[in-house]
Structures are given as structure tokens and as C-alpha cells.
Amino acid sequence: MYKYQEDVVRVVDGDTLVVNIDVGFNIRHEITARILGIDTHEIHFVKHESEEYKRGMKEREFVQDWVEEGQISHSDRFPFVVQTRVREGEKRQVWALSNRHR
After folding, report:
1. Which position among 24, 43, 64, 81 has the lowest Cβ density within 10 Å, counted as fewest Cβ atoms?
2. Does 48 reside within a domain?
3. Residue 57: CB partners within 8 Å, gap ≥ 6?
4. Per-residue pLDDT tens for 36-88?
5. What is the span of the domain harbouring residue 34?
6. Strand-pair partners of 90
């Protein structure tokens, strides 16, 4: 398992972020990452009038506020650690965790 420091570029929905990870040696890579252990309502590919969409948008707004608060109070870094995990029979998955390990 590898751990990387990252900056949040944008919030996709309540459980998905686009992050710019620092892989070392001044090399950065932008990826889409899921927040480990979180599963929120969908906002993509559902009708905008649906309850699913409305709940998903509230959850997305909550995460956006959380990200903005974290970036303000933790200098230029958001307190996530991005980990790679390999599940049996699947391709490599990338997840964002809600704490920082130093």
C-alpha cells in the first residue's frame, strides 16, 4: 500500500473528489478518488427532479464546505491521505481517507 499527500481540485459528488497527488520528486498527478467508507446519493445520470438528486446535491454541498474549511485551516494542503489498494480480481483502486498520517 502506498500513501500520498494531495490537494483537492474539486468535489465531484458527496463521495468522489478530484485530487492532485504528490507522488514525490516534484511529480504531481491528478486523479479521481473515492472517500473510503462513504456512499452518497447519485447526482449524475438521475433525473434532477428526483429525491436521489436532491439528496445528492445536499451531500455534495456538505463535502464542498468541508473541503473549503479544511483547506483554509491546514495551509495549502487538505488533510487526506490517498492510498492505493488492490482487491482480488479487480484493477487497482484509489481511495481518499479522511485523516492525515505523518
Report:
1. 24
2. yes
3. 43
4. 778 899 999 999 999 999 999 999 999 898 888 665 444 444 455 556 555 56
5. 3-92
6. none
